[in-house]
Amino acid sequence: MPNNPEITVGQLSERSGVAVSALRFYESKGLIRSRRTAGNQRRFSRDTLRRIAFIRVSQRVGIPLKVIQDALSALPGERTPTREDWARLSARWQGELDDRIKQLERLRHGLTECIACGCLSLDRCALSNPDDVAAARGPGSRLMVAPRDGCAPSC
Amino acid sequence: MPNNPEITVGQLSERSGVAVSALRFYESKGLIRSRRTAGNQRRFSRDTLRRIAFIRVSQRVGIPLKVIQDALSALPGERTPTREDWARLSARWQGELDDRIKQLERLRHGLTECIACGCLSLDRCALSNPDDVAAARGPGSRLMVAPRDGCAPSC
DNA sequence: ACTTGACCTCAAGCAAGGTTGAGGTTGAAT
DNA sequence: ATTCAACCTCAACCTTGCTTGAGGTCAAGT
Questions:
Q1: SS3 state at A19
Q2: Which terminus of chain A is less hemmed in, N or C, by CB atoms within 10 Å?
Q3: Domain that holds residue A13
Q4: How many domains does chain B have?
Q5: Residue A97 Cα, gap to closest chain B Cα (Å)
Q6: Which of B127, B111, A6, A14 is nearest to A23 (CA)?
Q7: Which has more confidence, B47 or A118?
Q8: Nearest partner of A154 among A130, A122, A106, A109, judged by Cα
Q9: Per the domain annotation, does A1 fall within a domain?
Q10: Cα separation of B39 and B114, whole Å?
Q11: What distance in Å separates the CA atoms of residue A25 and residue B127, rounded to the nearest whole number?
Q12: What is the mean pLDDT of residues A134-146?
């Protein structure tokens, strides 16, 4: 009883704060996995909680499930992921997070500068960058938030 | 010709980089408005470009269209919005942006700390805050990103 | 007059990320 | 032995944020 390694979907839901329906959905998408009992009920290993933590964190940053799934597929799968496995994974994510934060900061900066001078216009300040996190994927670079800072001279 | 104040939906699309269908969609949602010609075609005033810039910027930060629409409804509507109108609006948004950035930073920090020690677990580090921008709405407060920083002692 | 491209409406479809409900089983406790 | 919450599947539905297509009009050039 001290370390029963398996939990039910309900327990997983309770512990993670994620609805049972969502958990089943995640499983259907391959984000988490489970063993089945003789009676066809799901049993999750406890490290699934970590996976879910990772999923929710990633979602909050705006990463789509598919991409999260790709990332998670880098984890071992058979053996329980080690601390290092997680560390490697999250290191990658920290890069994404950093990028995202920088983007937001540029945005905020741009908003300050450009609105202060009244030129909140797309063609000049290029505040509207169509991409976020997904940016890592495509080869085609889209117009970025102002190479030089602000939109100073033209406004 | 120097200052024809009105543009067609196609021109608006071209200048903003937003698809015509999306522009019509925005109009249907009340995010932008247009006058109609005798022949029932849309004509937009040029400051619509600013609105669209604002919309796209806001979307990038993860704000849903409804909320953006609420914000935009604070703009005059009859008279063309002045610089100050925009400034007021964007000041509000900067607050949101700041919050969002802070959240991300807490996240990154949490990711560093908690993963370094191998305890990426929901119940301890509470990295999984279900809400973002939407947080302003619900009365029920969900578990927040660590009151104290990190997950130090328990890990 | 006629062609052509840009415009119009309205309905349907799509993708993501789930939730809801019907109808049926399991399993732990009484 | 029975009960009853918790589990199962599968299909349908929901919201957001658009796109696509059918069927029709408008306006400018030849």
A1: coil
A2: N
A3: 6-92
A4: 2
A5: 7
A6: A14
A7: B47
A8: A122
A9: no
A10: 63
A11: 21
A12: 29
Query: Tell me, what's the pLDDT at A96?
Result: 80
CA distance B14 to chain A (A): 10
Q: Strand A42-45 vs strand B35-36: parallel, antiparallel, or unpaired?
A: unpaired
Residue A33 lies in a domain: yes
Q: Which residues pair with B42 in a beta bridge?
A: B36
Given a cut of 70, the residues of chain B with pLDDT beneath it are: 1-4, 112-155
Distance CA B151, CA B155 (A): 6
HEC readout, A80-92: CCCHHHHHHHHHH
How far is residue B25 from each of residues A25, A83, B65, measured CA to CA in Å? 30, 47, 11
Q: Which position has the token pair 């406004």?
A: A155
Residue B59 CB lies within 7 Å of the nucleic strand D: yes
Closest to A121 (Cβ–Cβ): which among B49, B104, B105? B49
pLDDT at B118: 55
Residues B20 and B36 in one domain: yes
